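Please, structure for the following, as tokens.
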Amino acid sequence: EPRRASPRDARPSMSLARRAAPSRAVPSTSTAHRSKPPRASSRCRARADADHAPRGTIADAARMVLHTKRGRAIAIAVSKTPRETFAVTATLERDGTRATTPTRESLAALKMHFGLTRESVREWMCLEDLPEGAVYDEKTEATRIGFDAETRSATVEVPEYAAPASLDFVLYDERTRTYDEPSGGWGGSAFSVPIGIGCGHARELGASVLTRDEAAGSGEFNVAVLSRHATACTLVLQYGENTLELALNPISHRTGNVWHVSVPFGGPSDVLHAPTREDDVTYGFRFEGDPEGRAGSRFFPAQVLFDPRALEVVRPLNEMDEPTPTPRYMGSLAAVLERRAVGDANLAPAASDAQAIALNVDLASLTAEGTLQAAAAELQRLRSTMHFTAVALAPIQTRSADGDANAPVSFFAIDPKFGTRADLRAFVATMKSIGVDVWMRFVLTQTGEGTDASPRSESLRGIDAATYFQLGSSGGLDSAGVPMTTALNPCSAPTISLLVDALRTFTLYDGVSSFIIETGGGIVRGPLGRSPLLETLAYDAVIGNAPKKLYLTPSADECGAMPSWGVIGEINAKYSRGVENFFRGAPGMLNEMALRLGGSPDIFRSNRDARYGLNNFLRSAPSCSIPPTCAIPKTTTADPTETSDPIARAELAALFTSTGGILINVHALNPTLQPLASQLSQFRASRIDLFTDEFAFDGVRWIDPFTGAAPSFDDVSAAPCLTCLRRDLTGRNRDVWIAYNGSIAAFSTNLPSPSPGFRWIRRFDTSLAASDAAEPTPLVAQSYSVAPASVSVCELVELAKA
């Protein structure tokens, strides 16, 4: 049957129940019991007996021992009856601080003073049909029921249609006319017994599956969110055409700074069905706090916010009633259930980043569709003509309303316009099948939820801005360098936990191999110049575990100065500028060019790792030399050598003959450059041993093309002409000779004498047309003429193969 035909969808909301019983609607005692905000202390929760410590499920919530300020102990049991009611039984186990057994006299005077709550913990509702033995107190507009002298218990039956709700109560002593409230609670607080829901737990933030019965199709979700400064939290659920709000009483739904609740689904009496992609259940939160915005608080109770740890965000199923604005996104519970069914990704070993040929890909512009599915097909086509080992996805996290990639509003959920987490897993699987790892670029320094001048809260800002964001000296939130963004606090423990867990889920759940962290906005800021965030990432057993790597993107001035811990590498910001100046004909660039082509040992081969105690000998940070994308202008026509910029072709060749992994922008590979890139990538893949740090450091000999001796690296007037011999250290004698000409004139030079039984062949020359350079060509003469603004590569091969 269609789920929406279920009778449980017709149950009245608590507001309808209030209108049906106006004389008992809102007891004045409820306001008195909440005259003070809850404190951020784990003591605010009802303490459970050690033998019945709640683990968060409904079954655990049905067995609790509660303690009052005056030393009483009350055992709570919740059960279903054949009359389709929930029976809440409270048994007085101890009377007073001396652990005395309750007497008949004390039991006769003791009452259970209670009401039901759902949308608000400040409003108690009374049942129209009073439980047996209960009386309605006109003065307080609440219900009271006495304790049985024989069993020392009081039972309240709540109709099934009233669930989910909470039965809030305190003890009332008629002898002293006083209320006995929860131990550790604030003045005016009350015990809260969940009915049709569970207390939940704080062990795992976000939404997770607490229990699951596959055969019955039922289970329980646990939802937990951290908000230190909030005084009230409401869970908002949407299913079908319905919107349900559950106010969380901090006595039973808050542990420390974490608000939590468990919600059942799929059962015959459960409100929620088992969510699917086609029939989802969405969730969000409302938070209340300091309305004045002091100490960084930015609470707006009317706004529904999505979970910052939501695996996926989707459009709300229904419009919100006024004055609540309909949010842009809510969390998807179908994605949570799907994650449990799919499990962790198959973490196949990733390729070494030191040998990487990585393509930087922006999904939004790679294909007309701009989706992960379309990108997978396009990259498979490109892989058939060009060798590459990794794809680095430009930021795909959920973006602000402006669509700015540098203004994320979620670090867990990808933007719906790119697809779902299932699409990402399929994309990674497709890339793995063709030998390509998937990297992700991340902006971890700010969120796109507006500024204090123009706020637009969607998640973190309205949940607990003071905890997650950087506060200025005046208490305002610091703006980031990107318009309509606010800077995150990289030293805050909750912020660090949020960001680290986000990256972990993409690795464990989706199979992402490496991450490029966009450096800026103070990500390296921290006490004593250290970055707690980066240090946590580096030491993380999943993210910092080789061969998975982290990369930063410093400016040229910061290059080589980033913290490393032996794990974190850098995009080599000095590479592009040095190579470009060389091919533009700048004199005195021999030393700079040799350093950049050789892996920038002046930047990365230092003892900066050893000073942190992780490496005790001089070595570079793993794969720290990743030259950035060459700035190649887009041109269109058939003959690359006649229409494309020769400097762009030379820079591309230099990139593929540099030591260390390389990163190139796939969007720069226009039709005029793709044939050359394919040729270069195939050559590099066949001789990758020559371009890794382990071999290249001792295997490169730089040669002055005019004298055959070592170049004059200190000569500031030296022409930009340079050759090198990359020695084959594997014993096969397959040396490679490379010439780089950045001048405006050609030069001729002699190649080194080949070993007996070997000869030189030309592998490629950027000055030649693609048709002339398609096949390796044996060289007749020992000399070679290198054209202006070009790169030539020759390889030593056996005579038989030549």
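The CA atoms of residues 395 and 405 lie 6 Å apart. The chain has 19 helices and 36 strands.
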